């Protein structure tokens, strides 16, 4: 690190602790000039952290395989990158270990480096995306038309028109991009830092879960693991508290006897609704002949029922896909489009129901007022307004300078006025 004059980039988390406590920097060393800090482990020694990373102590109780995150980050393991606020600074400078000092009054750390090997350091402060809220960074944002449907889902044609339009726009955009490539003056190959951008994006996305796992196991460094209780010890411990025994018995009764029955009844009810929905969809899509329109093509109400039933029939498939999301890390964003589609359709249905209930409740509670207002509006625009217009057209002098047949205008005016009077019930 000290024998070159290149730009050294250090990626520093924005939520890193800035207390003046000693600690160890843990992260990924992408290259000699690219250092990515994932976590700051306080009140521990570098040698202890190295041993804990080697034997996997800091990666215990991982909810999923931590190698998946490391693979996405382009590394096989974490590394000790240096120290923070060391108690006794080392007399010699190690170019493979960083030394940083934090200050509560400053967001950025200070780096210790001898003057003769001082490199140019660029500190990049990044915010960790929260995987629980499905936050993540991406170089390719999600398209409006999601192209992740399998062959078994092709029957869902509620948004086929919009997806076809989006696919056409994407095709035209790709053609335009190819044309723009022909107008480049110089096409230079990407630099090492530019090529490392996708890996850095993945490291930022995975940093939150890796840091949480390290902070969870930091208490195991330098300490002996507590021996797990034997079966007899667990029996004695549970028997010491009667309430725990009663709670465990009730929980066992619920999980073994009650919950399976309730789950099966719910599944049977869902399947019954699904079968009924399929028959209604077939009825709405039935045609007398191949060229004849279906009921959903000539009725707006039938079209809305068709769309809502398709969404209802598609929800179980989406829900099963979302359940698979919990089988892996939240930083892996393969199921995010399905999540967005599922809750978007739920919100659309809930929005319609909420607006319908609100409007219906208002009409029921204020039925007299609403009836008077509706009657006034219809009377003003469809009766009184027409009367004034016809009287103006049949009046004298000629309206607006128009030359009308006086006798014919009077006859038609009286006829239309009589029709309006009859229609108004006068």
TrEMBL record:
GO terms for cellular component: endoplasmic reticulum; membrane. The chain crosses the membrane at residues 250-272. Keywords: Membrane, Transmembrane, Transmembrane helix. It comes from the Eukaryota. GO terms for biological process: GPI anchor biosynthetic process. InterPro entries: PigQ/GPI1. Pfam families: Gpi1 (PF05024). This is Pig-Q. It comes from Didymella pomorum.
